[in-house]
């Protein structure tokens, strides 16, 4: 049994998420593009530039085989990503909002076509390090990670301009499903006897329940049933914000219910589904 649990196919949702984003951006005024977001140092224009970077980077690498920026000799993955993301965002400040909207609209269907050709059971184009660092990722998790990236950045823009949306359960549920794949890694430092289980319950219209079970010396997502040694319950808004670090661990714990083994429950609230 894979540690990542059942596959999740998010590919039909990319056009819907993008349509919601483009409709949102098309209605923003000049002042809205300058509003600060939860991303340190980035306003709305910068976050949209970062999303454009993601579109261009994945097409360039996944479709065209272009290697892109190279690691400096002293860089870790987080520092590399921080550098190249900031470089693109800084350059994108030269682009008008209208042009960025047009580029997203133009590149989006090409990205959809690239995802449609992916064998979801094959290896990932880019491993998902926040899910596991010692195992290759499946392609479906890589594609799912990109969906969560786009959806979260859209929510960050919506928060900044005070326009909620893209919050239908059909759009939100896969974000929670993919973020839950970080649960085994969140627990990895907690050694327990095989068979020990930990439950994460996320409440709300898009919520769900995920069980991590210790088997063969490591934690794995398990779709079955088990009596958990620890349980953490939080609402869906708290969960996605915690996983993307839109709120702190302390803020998430204040909004959550933790029961059972305190070390295991505390580890769940350290769950991180971004590279940091």
UniProtKB/TrEMBL annotation:
InterPro entries: DinB/YfiT-like, Maleyloyr_isom, MDMPI_metal-binding. Pfam families: MDMPI_N (PF11716). GO terms for molecular function: isomerase activity; metal ion binding. The keyword Transmembrane helix does not apply. Residues 16-157 form the Mycothiol-dependent maleylpyruvate isomerase metal-binding domain. The keyword Secreted does not apply. Keywords: Isomerase, Pyruvate. It comes from the Bacteria. NCBIfam families: maleylpyruvate isomerase family mycothiol-dependent enzyme. This is Maleylpyruvate isomerase family mycothiol-dependent enzyme. It comes from Nonomuraea rhodomycinica.
